[in-house]
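User: I would dearly like some help making sense of a protein record. I have put the entry right below:
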Amino acid sequence: MLIVFAGLPGVGKTTVAREVARRLGAMYLRVDTIEQALRAGGTLPAGVVAEGYAVAYRVAADNLALGHVVVADLVNPLALTRDTWPPRPGRGWSTSRSCAPTRRSTASASRSG
C-alpha cells in the first residue's frame, strides 16, 4: 500500500507522514531528504530538478514489490512531478497486483490509525 502526503511546504505533511509511518511500521520516504543528498553530492551540473522524485519512485517501487507499506512525503512543485505521482502503469512501475500502489488521503489515513 502506498500512502502519499503531498502539498505546499510548511503545511504539516512531514509531521503527519512520519507519525503515520511510525504507527503503521511503514517505510517512510521523504523526497526532501533525497534531494538534499543529491545536492550534497554535487554531481548534477544543472542542480536537482526532478531527479529526487525519480529516485523516490524507484525506492517506493522496490519496497512495494516486497509487500511493504510506503508512506511518501512530497511537495510535487512541478507539473512533471505531479503528473508522475502517484505512480501509474507504463511509467516505470510494475503492473502486477503486488506492486500496484493504493492512494489514501490524509484524512482517511489518520482515521485508520
